[in-house]
Amino acid sequence: MYAIPADRQEPVQEMFSAIARRYDLNNTLLSFGMHHLWKEHAIREAKPPFGGRAADLCAGTCDIASLLAHRLGVDGHVDALDLNQEMLDVGAEKIRRIGLADRVTITRGNMEALPFESDAYDCATVGFGVRNVVAREKAFGEMLRILKPGGRAVCLEFSRPVNPAWRAMYELYNFRILPKVGTIVASDSTQVYEYLPASIANFPPQEELAGMMRDVGFSKVHYVNLCGGIVALHVGVK
Ligand SMILES: C[S@@+](CC[C@H](N)C(=O)[O-])C[C@H]1O[C@@H](n2cnc3c(N)ncnc32)[C@H](O)[C@@H]1O
């Protein structure tokens, strides 16, 4: 299995830069289109209020940011933040194309030290990002800081299928098929589709991640398993 370096930020960023232009297509192919449903579910849990303010962290190509902007309406605003300029460039094109440029501000930055004010956001989302973050407690602490009291944090991430037979099938797909298909579709010479299953296997399972959110200070922490736990949606309230 791919060995994840302790300081993975730089190699991981090189991988995202290499696949940015094919990221959306690959996501759709490799998740059989399911990532759109998972992201819509995340928005329902985030409960963005009409005219409110939301932050989407590790925003990548801005799928979640655009869903949030639609839900917040014309008077709402989204701050979309990511470390990777190439991913954000693809996201910015998408946001312009769908006419949301005046409702979404795109910022390059690190989720571990958000350049956003405290107690300012109705909800904060992070989709398939926390797995790549080095200092995860710090990142969750930053989500908590920027939320208004009562604001909701939603973390959408790959997790552990609960049923052993389902987990075995999923691991076969993840470790054997996905790296080959991903590498071909993304014309990728980096190890990103080797990194992906390894990073999922190394990520804390549902209860452990919920515990991390509670330790950081979130209340009412709970999670919903999607596709039998392939993906989990964690929610915490400030
Ligand atoms: C798998 S993509 C997810 C993109 C998008 N949220 C989605 O669901 O399609 C992960 C993103 O996290 C970003 N990322 C990783 N570590 C980060 C950090 N510390 N701060 C901000 N973004 C980070 C990467 O640059 C990448 O764009």
Could you describe the 3D structure shown?
This protein starts with 8 loop residues before the first helix and ends with a strand. It is built from nine helices and seven strands. It has a single domain (9-237), classed as Vaccinia Virus protein VP39 (Rossmann fold), CATH 3.40.50. With 238 residues, the chain is α/β, with parallel strands linked by helices. The radius of gyration is 17 Å and the shape is globular. Residues 16, 58-61, 63-64, 82-84, 87, 110-112, 127-129, 132-133 line the site of S-adenosylmethionine.
Features:
binds S-adenosylmethionine; Rossmann fold; alpha/beta; 238 residues; 7-stranded mixed β-sheet; 21% strand; 46% helix
